[in-house]
Structures are given as structure tokens and as C-alpha cells.
Amino acid sequence: MSLTPESLPRHELLGLHVRVVEDTDQSRVGIEGCVVRETMQTLCLDTDSGVRQVPKAGATFEFRLTDEAAAPDNGAGTAFKPAGGESQTTGESVAYVTVDGVKLLSRPERRSENGVDSKWR
Length: 121
Fold this sequence. Notes:
CATH architecture: Roll
Oligomer: single chain
Strand order of the largest sheet: 4-3-2-1-5-7-6
Largest sheet: 7 strands, antiparallel
Structural class: mainly beta
């Protein structure tokens, strides 16, 4: 399955850049980094200040997709933003996709390989 904004909740998340945009614990809002590990209930992000573990429940995540996954013809629901202060030397397209952490509550292998919806909705 190719990575598109629509398929993101069912896709492998390791290696994707993510930012916490909302959380029940306000101290976690704004944490951003690369997903280095995922469990059924948490995402572990490699941030500038080290590895941080963020619970999926109660959080809303903003994933950054690049290149073909961010192409404008990938369908409705894609939130495009200009690159802003980020340094982009490759000229790649960037899409920011917001996902409620509850949609990610499942074992990563069941969500990504089998395409099974989470039973924790």
C-alpha cells in the first residue's frame, strides 16, 4: 500500500516526522521528531532533546508527508502548508496530515500489514 494522506492511519509510521498538536497533557503539545518506535499505545519520537514517548490516546498528531505522498491529486482532506522556515533543498512537495491518536490505537503490525481497523475506536 502506498503512503497517501488517506492511508496514513493504516501505514507504517516508523521514519515519519510528526508533531503533537493537541494532547490531554499540555506539556506534550509541540513535541516533534521522527517516529523511531511504535507500540500499541504509544509513539516514541526522536527529538532534539532525546527520545520522548507519547501516548496515542488523548493526542492529535500532525504527520509530514513528502514527495508523491503529498501530491495535490491525492484526494480531499490533504492539508497543504508552505514549507515556511524549513530548509528544503530538494524542492519536494509537503503535506501535513492530522490524525487523532485514537485511530492509531492498535498493534502496529495488525494496523499496517493486515489493514484491520482498530477495535479501540
